[in-house]
């Protein structure tokens, strides 16, 4: 079982802490989690991410992607192949069913998914609501306030 050091990712991403912790737990030596299919998680922008999964042999009809609450589930199940007229001498391309679950951070949404050259790309974006974005507050001093009151009184 391979173990990946994700500590550089902790320092460079915001909002995926729970996702990386879940990956650490799954890829731990005693987790016994299946390593199929292999995947990468990339940061493609300030608030943009991409999950890339190697799903050679699967078509878009064989794969389903579901987002529920803060969870992303990718399932793959290949339709049974008929081996009429041919004999498979060695089967090295995995076609077994799989299910991968990812825990998404708050306000992370799936924007798109594409399948090309045996790689499934899932694009994610962190969209923070306007009410939660930082805003600048103007600072006033009592001296400025009293001058404005006097100026308003003089104008009236």
Structure overview:
It is a single chain. The chain has 156 residues and is an alpha+beta fold. It has a single domain (38-155), classed as Immunoglobulin-like. The chain is built from three helices and seven strands; from the N terminus they run ααβββββββα. The strands form two sheets. The protein has a four-stranded antiparallel β-sheet, with no helix packed on it. The chain has a three-stranded antiparallel β-sheet with strand order 3-4-5. A hairpin with a 2-residue loop joins β3 and β4. The longest helix is centred in the last third of the chain and has 14 residues, at 142-155. The radius of gyration is 25 Å and the shape is elongated. The model has no long low-confidence stretch (mean pLDDT 76).
Short descriptors:
156 residues, alpha+beta, Immunoglobulin-like, three-stranded antiparallel beta sheet, 3 helices, 19% helix, HSP20-like_chaperone, A-crystallin/Hsp20_dom
Instruction: Indicate the radius of gyration in whole angstroms.
Output: 25 Å
Q: Pick out the low-confidence regions.
A: none
- Measured between the Cα atoms of the first and last residue, the distance is 80 Å
Mean pLDDT, all residues: 76
Spatial shape = elongated
Biggest β-sheet strands, sense, barrel: 4 strands, antiparallel
Please give the CATH architecture: Sandwich
Topology order in helix (H) and strand (E) letters:
HHEEEEEEEH
| Number of DSSP E strands | 7
Tell me the name of the CATH class.
Answer: Mainly Beta
When the domains are counted, the total is 1
Helix percentage range: 10-25%
- In DSSP terms, counting alpha (H) and pi (I) runs of 4 or more, how many helices? 3
**CATH level 3 topology:** Immunoglobulin-like
Keywords: Stress response
Pfam families: HSP20
Family: Belongs to the small heat shock protein (HSP20) family.
Domain SHSP: 30-142
